[in-house]
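It is worth pausing here to work through a concrete case rather than discussing structure prediction in the abstract. The textbook approach is simple: state the sequence, then state the predicted structure, then interpret. We follow exactly that order.
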Amino acid sequence: MSTLSASQLPLAPLGAGDLIDRAIRLYRRHLFVLIRTAAPPVIIATGGSILGWLLLRRVFLTTDTAEVFLFFMLSVASFVVMFLGYLLTLVVMGGATRTLVAHLLRNDAVTARATYSAVRSRFWALIAASLIVLIWVSIAFVAVFMVWYILLGIISFGVILLATTTFFVIPAIFGVVALLIDTFLALVAFFFIVGRVAYVPQVLLVEGKGVFESFSRSFTLARGNVRRLIVMTVFTTFATNSALMILVIPLGWYGYITGVDLFNSGNWPAWYTIAYNVLGSLSSILLTPVWMLGLSLLYVDERVRHEGYDIELMAARQLGELPNVDVTSPLGTALSSTERTPLPPTPPAPRSSGGVLGLS
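Step two, the predicted structure:
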């Protein structure tokens, strides 16, 4: 497989469209490697999801109290496995960013082994940071959703008031416009909050910082990335759902012919539930690398914009990376070493022969 040289991938500030285009170019060049990289955590999450839903359905179908408790606990364990799969996806994103930067810096080959070797070097720090990121995202989603829902109630009340006093077209237009504005503001607020921690795994592995330092660093880098994060999310979501529809439509036709109620998932037979989730995981495996590459390129782009990272990478290509001597700097290194080497011992001070100045 041919590799993309550094000269073929010039570093420059990227707009939202350029970001997606660059991610697709890298995805096409390293398709099978990226699929192998993204597959393990997606398979874990999908396996947990399938088992969880199947076991949860058994909870409502059985009448034995002991079996209800057993199936419920097993379903909880399955959903924990699903959560771990999503957690590992964030962890692998950090390793993918390090592989990308090493590719830009030294033209190293893009391989799944290189990504997972980088992940192993900081595994527990990545787990802790990714867990905090997931908690942060969950809290942000709940908070933004509550505000959106409250505003939706106010909009509905206003529509009802207008409907009692004016022609029905005016409250309908008002309701649609207000709902769109409410949703747009909610999306901007959500991605503004989530964007603060978008680069934590990348900072951990590329710059070699600690967990809490990585959060501080991510907050510093995440300036003006809301629009590009929204575009990346919308594009990836649309592409994933499109791929899912292409895979699911033949399954839906077969299910409809065999008498499956496609619009009531609670009545799906086990074989249809498993097939639907497997196809969903396949679409995620195909499109998750695009999301990984997009976040990795976005991290590199933020450093190019704010720190002249392109110049630093070019200097590192020509002169080699600066030695890792644990020097504190407000800016990250081009690519930190995964192995921390201890500092050389300080030489002993010369023994004084007399007097304050060492004079006899």
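Step three, interpretation. The chain is about 75% helix and 0% strand. Residues 129 and 270 are 36 Å apart (CA to CA).
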